Amino acid sequence: MNGGPRGKKNRNQRGGKPDREELAINDDIRAPEVRLVGDNVEEGIYPIARALKIAEELELDLIEIAPMANPPVCKIMDYQKYQFQQRKKLKEQKARATKVVVKEIRFGPQTDEHDYNFKLKHAIGFLKEGAKVKSYVFFKGRSILFKEQGEVLLLRFANDLEDYAKVDQMPVLEGKRMTIMLSPKKPATKKKDAEKPKDEDVAQDDNQATTQD
Known about the structure:
Blueprint: E1 33-37, E2 44-47, H1 48-57, E3 61-66, E4 73-77, H2 79-96, E5 102-107, H3 113-128, E6 132-138, H4 147-160, E7 165-174, E8 177-184, H5 191-195, H6 199-212
Parallel strand pairs: 1-4, 5-6
Antiparallel strand pairs: 1-2, 3-4, 6-8, 7-8
């Protein structure tokens, strides 16, 4: 075999764009000994020369995946395959990271019942979609005199949404706005359903009660 593991690639021979955090491989690794991990080796601490020899015999690369460890942790595998796996993992993490959506709902300090119910219905829809709801009462001019009434309105709003939301922030007055922040509740587990008595059990208990009478 010529030139060690897969031609002994170094930093300048890997091809493609450099990683944001370059990993040392093969002859770039400067530690006198390393800890090998992975399915294709017997895990343990090896002198660097021995670790390189194992990688060479497997026709793979020695990759320093945890340079700050003592000793550094290395894995033996194809470097291009390792890069592909890392890119795939990063892509999956980004896909799982959901963007937080915040929907605003505005009230006046003397909102009528029809308008209140209309906005309550919209809030339920937003929460079911997974969005947060930022609801506020806007006090215009002398209506700031009704700030207690605005607080009562927001607390009622939170109470009416208790099946769908949890309160992240209680009503807070900032300038001419009193705001409350709500987050959607996670879907209820089936544990409660399991705790409920079955219809057959209820019927059986009723029959027993009738018999005892």
